Amino acid sequence: MDAVEFYSGVATEFHSSYQKDANRHERVRVFDDFLNRYAAGASFAYDMGCGSGVLACELAGRGIETVGIDGAPGMLAIAERTAREHGLSNLHFRQQVLPIADTRGFRQADIIISSSAIEYLNSIPEALRALRNLLKEGGVVVFSVSNRDSISRKVARWIYHLTGRPQYLGFSRHPMDAKDIEAALSVSGLTYLEHAYFARADRFNRFLGLLLPPRLSSNMIIVAARKETQI
Hints:
The chain is α/β, with parallel strands linked by helices and 231 residues long. The longest helix is centred in the N-terminal third of the chain and has 17 residues, at 22-38. Strand 1 (44-48), helix 4 and strand 2 form a beta-alpha-beta unit. It is 44% helix and 22% strand. It has helices spanning 3-9, 11-20, 22-38, 54-60, 73-85, 124-133, 151-163, 178-188, 203-211, 214-217, and strands spanning 44-48, 65-70, 91-95, 109-115, 135-146, 191-198, 220-226.
């Protein structure tokens, strides 16, 4: 089983988590905050690794024509249904295994989002270069990855090595810290803009947050980067 097969199989449970999981609610809020800064004026967007379409709906709900791309058919079936339920005629989905090596024939976007997807791929720089190729000059990518400095993530990985649970950690290959991200962006031809930490809504991380900075008490990092205009 690979990550695509795994997430296709858990698609219903994954989508349901957006209704009941405080960390999922926080994820939507954090992405919305970044979109408030970087999606203004955008007319076309991709959600790469769109899963069940929750964040793609956030983009399309802003009036931005959006294409969600994911390799997992189980996720896309729910995403299509979710878009219909929201009445979003400007949102469409495409099945495609990431990263997209050959971007010829793909429309270039003003903004791309990617929520916790690129860490599952073979190479972070390769994944970021693929995203860069899909951006217009001056376009922005907003993506999240697992925070390698997170104490609770380290505990979870230790438990995974002992028990094989939670299963998804077996597919997540590249947790990163802020320095890793800036280096990967540099070699990929993207200009770092900002990053922030999130995913500390659970009880353990809320407790850690009373004692430690967000770098250590948050499970995720969200990043914005730009494809600079060529002179």
